[in-house]
Structures are given as C-alpha cells and as structure tokens.
Specification:
0% strand; single chain; mainly alpha; 14 helices; Arp2/3 complex 21 kDa subunit ARPC3; 3 domains
Length: 325
C-alpha cells in the first residue's frame, strides 16, 4: 500500500529526531558510565551510519550536527569534555561509512577506504601536536600508562591476586608501557578496522530486517583473506628475530595486523559452521561474548583462519544458499 506524501514526511521527521536522540544517548551514556565506555563507543557510529544511509546525505549531516550540539552540551555539563574529540572522530567515521554504503563497493573496499579516510584527521592531529610541543603525543602517554598500570596493580592486590604476580606487574610496569606504546600503531588500526567491520555488519542486519536495500557483500561466511597475506606473517615473524628495536617493533606491528585479518577469516569460518549446523542464536551469542571476555579463545580462531589456507575447513560442511553472514 502506497503512503501519502504527508505520511512520508511524518516518517522522515520521526526518523530524523529518533536518530539524533539515539546517536546522542550512546555517547552520553558512554561518558556517564566509563565501565561500559569501550562497548558503547564501538557501537557509537551505528545509529549515525543507519540513519545517514536511510535519510540521505543532507538530512544525515543535519542529524550529525544536531547530535553534536546535544553531546557537546551534555559532556560539558558532566565534566567529560575529554570525550569530545573521540565523539567527533566516531561521528566522522559514521558519516564516512554511511557515504560509502551508498556506492557499490565490496566489504574489503568499504573497510579499507573508511579506515584510510578516518586516519587522515588522526595523522593531522598528531602532526599538529608535534609542531606545537616538539614531541610526539606518545611521549607523555608512556608515563601516564605506567601510572595506570600501577593503579591497576593496587586494585588487583585488593582483589586477592597472588603477591608474586603483583610484584611481577609492578616491577615490569615501565616495560609493559613501553611495549604498548610501540605497538600502538597496529592496535589503533585494528580497533578502527574492527569498529568499522562490526558496525557495517550490524547495520546490514538491521537493514535486512526492515527490508531496506543494502549493498550485496555476498556470503561473508565464505570470506577469505588474500593467499599472499601469509608472506606478511612469515616476513614479520622473521623480523622479530632481529634484536634492533625499530625492526623488532615494526615486525610486531605488521604481525598483529596480519593476525587480525586471519581472525576475521576464522570468525567467518565459525559463522559458516554455525549456519550449516543450525546452531541456536543463544549459543552463537555466548561464543561471541566469550571471545570478548576470554581472549585465550581468540588464538584458536586465528589459527583456524590461518590454517584454512591449506585445510579449507568449509569444504567439510554442506553448501549454503543466500548471501547473509
């Protein structure tokens, strides 16, 4: 049944106001409840991507502007102005992904182009900080990390963690902070790429449920990394054998990036197995939640993705129809 012009306007206005409210609320809740900030910020771009794609560029940009004004006022009132740059970055990310979804791109192109565009303002901010202070921003971040680790050590002691482990963490706090700073490039890229990937998959599921057109990424449960990527793993692993600091950490960053790609391939294989075996949604959700809270499970998933290059795990399962992940 066709809707009248008046009904369509009402729906557009409703979606516009709902988009502003939801987008604002996600960031305000993340600032108000720091314990859930990581989870909420990862989902921060989702409502922006969804409503930007649904409403179009013009209304989508007004939506982001409206959300920005509300969040800016709320964070100022809460005394959490430090989150404003992050909101700007994630809002920009949401607009970027929403814009790219309107083009006929593959999932790889969507993630990589979005990542490349979002990195530009980050690099500009780093360059500005270096010109203004004469030092890269991670110089002051390292002492802050050491203090954070020592504060966490006190918390672990109150939780009853064995004294040997407490002393080990306390003595190695500067080394841990130094290592973390040196692998920050790969961790930042992985976090952004994961944020883009998760939000793209999530918004696709929402669009499919509402019967709204979405780019056809194909059957993502059959997704595979380029075969030549294994040489990055081999080469970066070899660089770890060289004791020189810059070479070692360059190899470590490249290795982490390569393993992240194989993690995505491993997740595609797991998702393929879940679908072919008709595993209940509740059990799938439990498994994915365990991946977040039990990082030891991540290594087997990476191994599955890496060894799929030779074993092809999906050939042991029945063929699937459809194009959803």
């Amino acid at each position: 049944m066709l809707k009248s012009e008046g009904e369509e306007k009402v729906i557009v206005i409703r979606d516009f106001l709902t988009g502003i409210a939801v987008s604002s609320m996600v960031f305000i809740l993340a600032a108000a409840f720091p314990s859930s900030a990581s989870f909420l910020f990862f989902l921060g771009p989702l409502p922006i991507i969804f409503y930007y794609s649904k409403l179009g560029r013009r209304l989508g940009l007004f939506l982001v502007l409206g959300a920005f004004v509300i969040v800016l006022s709320a964070l100022g009132a809460l005394g959490h102005g430090e989150y404003i740059p992050l909101f700007c970055l994630l809002g920009f990310l949401g607009v970027t992904v929403g814009e790219l979804l309107g083009r006929r791109l593959s999932i790889e192109q969507t993630v990589l182009i979005s990542l490349g565009i979002v990195i530009i303002p980050i690099l500009l901010l780093i360059a500005y900080s270096m010109l203004r202070t004469g030092n890269p921003p991670w110089r002051w971040a390292e002492p802050y990390l050491v203090r954070t680790i020592l504060e966490n050590v006190k918390l672990y002691a109150e939780m009853g963690v064995p004294a040997e482990q407490i002393n080990l963490l306390r003595e190695n706090a500067p080394k841990i902070a130094h290592t973390f700073i040196n692998i920050l490039p790969s961790l930042s890229l992985i976090s952004l790429a994961l944020c883009i990937w998760l939000n793209t998959i999530a918004v696709r599921a929402i669009f499919h449920r509402q019967g709204v057109h979405f780019p056809d990424f194909g059957d993502l449960t059959r997704w595979k990394a380029p075969e030549k990527l294994v040489w990055l793993i081999i080469g970066s692993g070899g660089m770890l054998l060289i004791p020189e600091g810059r070479v070692f950490y360059t190899g470590l960053n490249l290795l982490l990036l390569g393993l992240f790609v194989y993690l995505l391939q491993g997740l595609a294989i797991v998702s393929y197995f879940f679908k072919t075996r008709n595993i209940p949604v509740i059990l799938r959700s439990i498994f994915y939640a365990l991946l977040i809270f039990q990082l030891t499970l991540v290594l087997p998933v990476i191994a599955v993705g890496l060894f799929d290059l030779w074993i092809d795990f999906r050939k042991f399962n029945k063929k699937m129809d459809g194009s959803t992940a």
